[in-house]
Amino acid sequence: MEVDDMKAKNSQRNDIIRKVFIYVLLVAFGIFMIYPLLWVFASSFKSNDEIFKSLSLIPKHIVTNSYFEGWKGTGQYSFGTFILNSITLVVPVVVFTAISSTIVAYGFARFEFPLKTILFTLMISTMMLPGTAVLIPRYMLFNCLGWINTYKPFIVPALFGTTPFFIFMMVQFLRGLPKELEESATIDGCNSFQILMKILIPLCKPAIISMCIFQFIWTWNDFFNPLIYINSVEKYTVSLGLNMTIDGTSVVNWNQIMAMTIISMIPSIIIFFSAQKYFVEGIATTGLKN
């Protein structure tokens, strides 16, 4: 009996030690991952001389006007103009991507048509194609259409389901839904569009929200494509505005840049945490079959 008690105590002690080790490791890894963000936030209250001389998160001399001065921007455009431009660009792209990707995925997941497998394979294969490989043809096409220095190179392609990753994700989610629901709706007299709108889209809400979060963050943070297609400062997005702040002044006020970086991250952080429940559910259930 005493031997069994000793084994139980040793096993319990080992479990506690293992859990403590795992928690300490996770906390250390979490601090390691979040430290750059904390450093950026702390640097927004430091002077230029102090930012790159110390890794400490506590500023020796607190600078209080970095957010106010940074919001003024450079030249005649404030940072608020860049945020509004980003919203004007991102919202249509997210909405149209969600609509078009869902419709295309519905077609691949539920309908049979000639060359379906070949077309689906070609669509998936485009995920392996680097964006730089089609950059010049796309630029030439958009230039011929007169879309350069507008948001059309971003918005119009989103109308036609040009993001294979989201289509693939939605196809996998739709395949995991029972077909009996659609068969019952068909018996009740619903057509394909009504089945999509009334049956499938409510069930696909976690996947659709996950798609919107991904697309919002990717488009909001995109720097390269706006740099190629947008020329005038009045249409610059947040990423281009931050870059202009660095290039447009002889003396770079890094605390102001850090302050505007923090502000530019706020929309993505708010959207992610406000929809975190659906995001986790959508990612966890994509590809599962009943």
Automatic annotation (TrEMBL):
Gene3D superfamilies assigned: MetI-like
Coiled-coil stretches are none
InterPro entries attached to this UniProt entry: MetI-like (IPR000515), MetI-like_sf (IPR035906)
On whether Chloroplast is a keyword of this UniProt record, the answer is: no
Keyword Cell membrane assigned to the entry: answer is yes
Where do the ABC transmembrane type-1 domain residues begin and end? 83-275
- Enumerate the UniProt keywords alphabetically: Cell membrane, Membrane, Transmembrane, Transmembrane helix, Transport
A GO cellular component annotated for this chain's UniProt record is: plasma membrane
The UniProt entry's sequence similarity note says: Belongs to the binding-protein-dependent transport system permease family.
The record describes its membrane topology as:
Multi-pass membrane protein
This protein is called what?
A: Sugar ABC transporter permease
A Pfam family reported for this protein in Swiss-Prot or TrEMBL: BPD_transp_1
Q: Name one GO biological process term.
A: transmembrane transport
Where does the record say this protein resides? Cell membrane
Q: Which residues cross the membrane?
A: 20-42, 82-106, 118-142, 154-174, 195-218, 257-275
